[in-house]
Amino acid sequence: MTLEEQDACNLHEMVIQQVEKPLIEYVLGKTEGNQTKTANMLGINRNTLRKKIVQYAIGIEQN
Fold first, then answer.
1. d(Cα 27, Cα 5) in Å, to the nearest integer?
2. pLDDT in tens, 4-62
3. In this structure, how many other beta carbons lie within 10 angstroms of the beta carbon of residue 28?
4. Distances in Å between the alpha carbon of 49 and those of 6, 52, 57?
5. Listed residue (30, 33, 31) closest to 59, CA to CA
6. What mean pLDDT is reported for the chain?
């Protein structure tokens, strides 16, 4: 998806989605999948994190 393909009203959402998923994946990796620690590091509620994990179809590896 490129900037030229987006309507002006969707720019914020597009940028957030492009940044948010990799950020969540990175922090989950750093916390070894610990959602509570990840949420704390990101400054969001754990339930919000869980919603975003489902929204972005982020896989969680269980040890």
1. 30
2. 665 567 888 889 999 999 999 999 999 999 999 999 999 999 999 999 999 999 986 54
3. 22
4. 26, 5, 12
5. 33
6. 88
CA 15 to chain centre: 12
Q: How far is the C-alpha of 43 from the C-alpha of 60, rounded, in Å?
A: 20
pTM of the complete model? 0.78
Phi and psi for 16 in degrees, rounded to 5? -60, -45
Residue type, 20: E
The one-letter amino acid code at 41 reads M
- For 51, 52, 54, the CA distances from 33, given in Å and listed in that order, are 15, 14, 14
